[in-house]
Structure formats: C-alpha cells, structure tokens
Write a sequence for this structure.
C-alpha cells in the first residue's frame, strides 16, 4: 500500500497542487465540525432560527421553502447532527483521500443546501466557491494523488475511484 502511495505521485503528479487544496478543505471541515460539536450548535436551535430568519429572502423555489419549513425547522436537532456528521465525514475523506468522489458530491449538495438556507453576504459567496471546488474535486478524482483512492483505483477500476 505504501508503494501505491508513492506511485500515485509518479503517475498522477500533475494533481499535486489539488492535494493541497483537498487537505486544506479537509482541515477546514474538521475545524468546523469540531467547533459545532464542542459548541452549542447541537444543543440550541440556532440552525432553526437561521433558517426561519433567512428563508423568506432566499432565492430557493417555493416547493423547497415549503419542505424546509415543514421538515427542517421542527427537526432542527436531527438536521444539526446530520450537518455535523457530514462535515466530519468530509474532513476524514479529504484528509485521507479516500472515496473523494462520492463525498465531494455530498459536500456539493450540502453547500447548495447551505446556500439556500443561509443568509446572503460573505457566507453565501463562500458556499458558492466551495460548491465549485467540491464539484471540481469530484470531477478530477482528487483522492488519486497522495491518497488512498489510488490504491483502490489500481486494483478496482470504477467510477468512485
């Protein structure tokens, strides 16, 4: 497996700058998830307050706004656990370079979701930027260079590696 790790640099070395971006995003999501886990994000209904405050100004379709108000706001604690768990999964996947394509697609969906339920401003632009980065990481298979995905890519060809 260590040999495959070194071979990944040799054969997919052109993706080496993407590795730094992938690891940085993994570290960013790890810090965000730890802050939410150690803070009061899972205890207080901050996400429900944020949704109810910014959803009327959102550019989301009406069916989506109805779905969010009927499911997300009453079940804010489940949503908070899902967001925190998904951020932990994204962080671990990006740091290890394992199953980056499906996790990047999930991360892109999460960024799109946060774009619609969060308020405008700088956080909105950050979500759009992250959406583009996650889609790019999924498109090029960023885990194949200096990650565990190359080990599985060599042995099992498939769309997920």
């Amino acid at each position: 497996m260590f040999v495959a790790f070194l071979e990944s640099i040799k054969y997919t070395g052109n993706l080496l700058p993407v590795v730094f971006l992938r690891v940085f995003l993994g570290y960013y999501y790890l810090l965000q998830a730890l802050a939410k886990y150690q803070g009061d994000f899972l205890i207080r209904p901050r996400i429900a307050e944020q949704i109810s405050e910014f959803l009327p100004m959102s550019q989301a379709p009406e069916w989506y706004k109805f779905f969010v108000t009927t499911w997300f706001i009453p079940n804010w604690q489940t949503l908070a656990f899902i967001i925190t768990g998904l951020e932990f999964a994204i962080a671990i996947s990006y740091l290890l370079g394992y199953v980056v394509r499906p996790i990047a697609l999930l991360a892109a969906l999460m960024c799109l979701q946060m774009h619609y339920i969060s308020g405008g401003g700088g956080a909105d632009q950050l979500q759009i930027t992250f959406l583009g980065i996650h889609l790019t990481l999924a498109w090029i298979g960023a885990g194949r260079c200096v990650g565990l995905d190359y080990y599985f890519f060599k042995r099992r060809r498939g769309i997920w590696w």
In short: The CA atoms of residues 60 and 116 lie 6 Å apart.
